[in-house]
Amino acid sequence: MMDNLTKKGIASSKGYAIGYVYLKQDENVNLDEIAFTSINEEKEKLNVAIEKAKEQLQKIKEKAEKSIGKAEAEIFSSHIMLLEDEEFIKAITSLIENENIVAEKAVEKAVKTFADMFSMMEDNYMKERAADIKDIGKRLIKNLCGIVDDAEDLGENTVVVAHDLTPSDTAQIDKSKVCAFLTDIGGFTSHSSILARTLEIPCVVGMQDITSSVKTGDRIIVDGVEGIVIINPDEDTIKKYEKLKEEFENEKIKLRRLIDVNAVTKSGKRVIVAGNIGSPKDADKVLEVGGEGIGLFRTEFLFMGKENFPTEEEQFEAYKYVASKMNGRQVIIRTLDIGGDKSLPYLDMPHELNPFLGYRAIRLCLDNKPLFKTQLRAILRASAFGKIGIMFPMISSLEEFLKAKEIVEECKAELREEKINFDENVEIGVMIEIPSAALIADELAKYVDFFSIGTNDLIQYTLAVDRMNEKVSYLYNPMHPAVLKLIEMTINAAHKEGKWCGMCGEMAGDERAIPKLLELGLDEFSMSASSILRAKEIIINWE
Hints:
Strand content: 5-15%
Strand order of the largest sheet: 1-8-7-3-4-5-6-2
Largest sheet: 8 strands, mixed
Number of helices: 20
Shape: globular
């Protein structure tokens, strides 16, 4: 019976979808009920499950390379390598031979032993391997039990419903099949929300109990504009949303007329509308929708999902690709912003009670000079192939900025000595995302070439609201007078010194905020590619 059950969450990626639920959850299997056959048969079952797992991971890796990038997909190579580890496989087969237990139980016991062993190691990289072992164990047991992972073979118009979506989960999502995401937790700036906007897929997050409200196969409507979800809708409701979906898609098509149009207000103010990217190939999406530059290149994604730090050459190739692709349009590269909710398995980082306020971003880079210099040299080398700007994240004082700038000068001197070309006039700026930086913007402005306001963290720190916590998400208000005051101070300070001021936080693409930001005098708006055309329209129609 149709009940039109309606649920509300946070609208984090606009659009409408009408599809069928795929509920992503862990299967609970009682391994004690599985009957033992013979040692040879159990070992044969295990070999088949391992080969199947390798094939599955190879397919996932190939999909991930196409959807999110080669570097990010490397995590699946390490999973395949673990399945080929002789010691790991021998431990499982020994359990089958010596204890006469089913392959499923042997996998479970061996995985626990290895995971415990890795968890107790002091080295953080080795500790992280425990999670990889558990993931592989789960996959092997599912294969042994004949559990089909429906996520790998989704039908058309699938709405993925999960408690949360990790980067590995989203790497497997096939946009031709998945039409929306829904999650129990998360906020507007959570990774699943940002990814949904990048993919232009409707998304509602922070729904709290959506996973316990639906089952796989339920028909569902996702309203990513209002943050509404309707479970098992009646025909009248479906017709209403089919119409809204059609109007939304038609509007997107109409906006394409603005691809080659400059963003100039009716009063004649020219502003730049640029895109935020996380991998080099994202630059293509920005160009497709008429982006006039890259206002934020999040370089940490070059460092994640790998076994070691990317080399100077690997980084240089990535930065050079984007600089060349943008063909003279400005590309602002943010130096490594790791820490907080982003960690590297191969970087030994201390456990912190408040990681968002701790050892991260520029603080970590200034403390790891060789790491920092490798990235700066790669960026400077790439500056010979386009218009690149360097931006430092998490700056809280003038001293930090001057110290970082001094290291840039060291790198420049080395490159000159080595007779390697770079842009001597590369712009160096600060990401304003800590209230203290906004409050001393007048002092900083004397030394920088530009500011870019990172509103995701600026709002979080100003209002003391954890942006990932759905329970306090109602307090996360970009239009709070305190936030607007800090933005105004930053823009005025830049202009007083003849410098430009942009914004690369999600607020830059917020339709409600754009008129206010124009009023405050913002020079550049940088956002997800999917928001660029709508932002241009608002700017062009602003008096």
